Amino acid sequence: MSVFTPVPETVLAQWLQNYAIGRLVELKGISAGVQNSNFFVTTTLGRYVLTLFEDMPRAELPYYLHLMAHLARHGLPVPAPIANRDNEYLGTLQGKPAVLVMRLQGASDMTPDTDRCTRVGAMLAGLHLAGQSYGRRQANPRGASWRSEAAQRVRNHLPTDERALLDAELCFQSTLDCGQLPAGAIHADLFRDNVLWDGEHIGGVIDFYFAGHDTWLFDLAVTVNDWCTEADGSLNRARYDALVQAYHAERPFTAAERAAWPGMLRAAALRFWLSRALDFHLPREGEMVLVKNPHEYRDILRLHIDVPAPPLPGQV
Ligand SMILES: Nc1ncnc2c1ncn2[C@@H]1O[C@H](COP(=O)(O)OP(=O)(O)O)[C@@H](O)[C@H]1O
Ligand SMILES: N[C@@H](CCOP(=O)(O)O)C(=O)O
């Protein structure tokens, strides 16, 4: 369920007068997603998605919206936010910060083949390169300091074996130096459900609300952990090779990145193990939150420790 805040049609019709996109034809709540209230909005001029931000700080929202606008301007299939008549992306609706973005074509694919992994790898490299000229900067909200803090909050709720795994992993992560790795604006949550396929093409990349400044390699590791793993957490070699080679062809890896890769896959697995374990053990009160299985990411982490992934392509 993703409509936490209802929006009556009469209220939206009035609110749309702040925009130049015609009159309201249809409003429909969207049943996917876990963070915000989302609606499909059709007007006499086009199709849009309305998002009401439920608990994200208003001050952080311009970073995400301007990043989406920047990437769309660079030709990436990212929903461009719509400016209102005051030339602002962010408005207020039902007391919540609210934005309209373009509705993109397509549907997500939870069982992608190697061709789709190739396209995602190439698109992610393009997203990183286009992000180099983005002028704003905001730290990855789920970066290294969040991970340490989240680990302390969840640690005592874990069974003994998981607590030992967490302590050992935090200790390992604290030895890694990411200072030499190329960094910039990253999506940070490029899961299969955040990519819409329109035939063989990527019709849309959505949900930029975990984006931030961090290493490009972290973004790639998040993507590989979701797109290239089997149900037991092991890597699917064909999808893995397709995705990382396509990325490398657009934006070649550096030596420092190749050295950091095994640790980065672990950092990315830890990030989602922690957020899911927090949602599981310390659910946010009063919200209808879809809790995803934390064990999936605990197991991906364990497998990266036991069976390091094949090296990234490039000169040794
Ligand atoms: N710009 C868009 N174009 C088309 N569909 C979209 C767009 N934005 C969101 N959606 C649809 O809405 C659903 C929920 O959006 P999402 O951003 O994942 O929500 P949440 O922020 O709550 O996790 C997506 O699965 C997708 O079906
Ligand atoms: N991709 C994350 C959860 C983030 O939820 P989203 O619906 O906003 O993408 C996970 O799988 O844990």
UniProtKB/TrEMBL annotation:
* GO molecular function ontology, one term from the record: homoserine kinase activity
Q: Give the reaction(s) catalysed.
A: L-homoserine + ATP = O-phospho-L-homoserine + ADP + H(+)
Involved pathway(s): Amino-acid biosynthesis; L-threonine biosynthesis; L-threonine from L-aspartate: step 4/5
Gene3D superfamilies per UniProt: 3.90.1200.10, Phosphorylase Kinase, domain 1
Q: Which domain of life is it from?
A: Bacteria
Q: Where is the Aminoglycoside phosphotransferase domain?
A: 27-253
Q: Which UniProt keywords apply?
A: Amino-acid biosynthesis, ATP-binding, Kinase, Nucleotide-binding, Threonine biosynthesis, Transferase
- Name its GO BP terms in alphabetical order: threonine biosynthetic process
Supply the EC number(s). Answer: 2.7.1.39
Which InterPro entries does the record match to this protein? Answer: Aminoglycoside_PTrfase, Homoserine_kinase_II, Kinase-like_dom_sf, Pseudomonas-type_ThrB
A Pfam family assignment: APH
| Keyword Kinase applies | yes
* Family (UniProt): Belongs to the pseudomonas-type ThrB family.
Write down what this protein is called: Homoserine kinase
Species lineage, top-down? Bacteria, Pseudomonadati, Pseudomonadota, Betaproteobacteria, Rhodocyclales
